[in-house]
Amino acid sequence: MSRTLLLAGLVLAVLAVAAPAQKDKGKAPVYKTPQEVFDAAVEAEKKGDFKTFAGTLAPVAQKEMSAMFGVEFSAGRAELKASKEDKDQQVYKILSPIFTVLDKHGLTEKATKDVKKSKDAKETEKSKKAVEGMVKDPEAFLADLLAALDKLGGNPKTVDKLTNLKVDGDKATGVVVSSYEDKKKKDKKTDVTFVKINDSWRMIPSLKGDDEDEKPKDK
Q1: How is the chain split into domains, by residue range?
Q2: Can you give the pTM of this predicted structure?
Q3: Local confidence band at 21 (pLDDT 50, 70, 90 cut-offs)
């Protein structure tokens, strides 16, 4: 699961902990425990079943991830297309499957012309809100986007285990320990939150990029 979440690379943020009670769509699977939904997510990722993977996420996580990815890749597409550098044009072509997904879900170049990446929190939030309004089905958008990202490959594989699980009513927390196939890389630990919605557990994972872990700490 860590491998799939890291495919976005540039997205560095932690999702909200709390989730409002929302109804699942259609005949969604029912996960009776946090461990069960976690295992389902890991298995779906292994099989490349990103529709099921996206369905293991809580609605608030689907919405937040869609907004974050939408801003990142919409703004990135605009920057790459405007660049005169040959290497940027090559990257633009490589990422074309992702841009096709953006167009499919309403995030066309025209619709996202005002979506910007910014260090200003208010500006970023404005862009995220704009993307949220364009993406009508966050779950389907995530499924398509993660599938496109997976096909691009090039990311390290991991074995993920859920540890330190603590359940408190309709909420739970845990830590995902990701072990890399490359033994030279240290295990990665990330927090994960679970919420129970209509008798079924869903996940709210945290998103961190590898570069965030490697940033030097202020002295």
Answers
A1: 2-6+14-19+29-155
A2: 0.80
A3: very low
